[in-house]
Amino acid sequence: MSRQAAVSTTSDVAAKPSKLFVLDTNVLMHDPTSVYRFEEHDVFLPIMTLEELDNHKKGMSEIARNARQVTRTLDEIVSSMDDAIEQGIKLHEASRRLASGRLFLQTEAIASELPAGLPTAKADNQILAVVIHLQRQHPERSVILVSKDINMRIKARTLGLQAQDYFNDKVLEDTDILYTGMRELSAEFWDEHGQGMESWQQDGHTLYRFKGPLCTQFLANQFLIQEGESPLHAIVRNASGTSAEIQTLTDYTHARNSVWGITARNREQNFALNLLMNPEIDFVTLLGQAGTGKTLLTLAAGLTQVLETRRYKEIIMTRVTVPVGEDIGFLPGTEEEKMGPWMGALEDNLEVLNKSDEETGDWGRAATHDLIRNRIKIKSLNFMRGRTFLNKFLIIDEAQNLTPKQMKTLITRAGPATKVVCLGNIAQIDTPYLTEGSSGLAYVVDRFKGWAHAGHITLQRGERSRLADYAAEVL
């Protein structure tokens, strides 16, 4: 349902005629099931939208796959038609009761009524002409153009038409409320929850079990912080009803607990290493701006568990290949060689990890580098469908550029004993039509919070250099 429809009262819905949403092609290709997402309202597809879908259906890209899926969905809807097509096709049965409106297809030629400055041959302008026609034909109804194209929406508004973005893909309206993985406890917390508390030791950690009103808000694997004279850093192991069980953390800021020679430099990095080194946690998401140590900590944890404890067989690293500047064209070589230029972050971090052992000398470091590179495989997203990763440490870098659907495709590749780590910064999205609220990374953070085998932390402080920290702050 649209945001406007969501806030209307029941009496308003009964009194007003349903809205008519005209869908731009990019909405259908962004979400192939979008025709079912408008609940009681009607959906209209201009003939030019179908033409553009036809132009994009060839190939193996995500857009081409989505275009083909939309075409199949529309075929299924049209096949279930009972009434004349001009009356609209009921979506109730085809959508499995998700939508109760009708789908209208353009069945007649519509004369262009656009201002002289807009060329009628352009597909976007023909869709705008359809919206103008529908607005005149149905003055009693709200006719709204839905498009992911900002320029298209601006053009529509300058012509006096209603236009809006497609909101259904948004996980959050405001990324400030995105789950951070941490919760600060007040000074009065133990006064309210300390009565009848149990505590015991297990595997070098102290565990506490207590009851209280705040326990209902705790999530599994959420970090609890209480600063002061006797600071507490703990993780929620179990929370059910008004009781909770929490456990103290391994202190990775101390050199004796270093991971591949790396120690945590701040509170959030310590939390991240507790998630990355925990065999019970299968899925980890790390958010943070450039220089917070996401990739370095993940690689250090991965190498320790692959080469030292042998918990996993190898590290697999992948990322979306979206260029920041101009694309440099086709790259020669094997899959791994083609991905090489995209994996500069991997090489930079391996250099840091390789320097952590100063006593080995140049020969020793060269041998270690070869050993490490032999256990890290770089894979392209293009070849992930149908694969199953067994006993692997899978790192998805720059995950903010993935759509929720791509993220699902990747995470469902995980077989038994595989750990998946997603890294990203939702303030640096390079994929067209994706926003902070609709990114696949924000989607999985929101959906996995509270699952007993998943953990998330938002890294706050940059640890790259004083220059990088100052640039991130002032630029």
Automatic annotation (TrEMBL):
Protein name from the UniProt record? Phosphate starvation-inducible protein PsiH
Entry GO MF terms: ATP binding
- Describe the location of the PIN domain by residue ranges: 19-154
Similarity annotation: Belongs to the PhoH family.
SUPFAM superfamilies, per the entry: P-loop containing nucleoside triphosphate hydrolases, PIN domain-like
Would the keyword ATP-binding be found if you checked this record's keyword annotation? yes
Gene name as annotated: phoH
Query: Keywords for this entry?
Result: ATP-binding, Nucleotide-binding
Q: Which domain of life is it from?
A: Bacteria
PANTHER family noted in UniProt:
PIN DOMAIN-CONTAINING PROTEIN (PTHR30473:SF2), PROTEIN PHOH (PTHR30473)
Query: Which InterPro entries did the record assign?
Result: P-loop_NTPase (IPR027417), PhoH (IPR003714), PhoH2-like (IPR051451), PIN-like_dom_sf (IPR029060), PIN_dom (IPR002716)
Q: Name one Pfam family in it.
A: PIN_4
May I have one GO cellular component term? cytosol
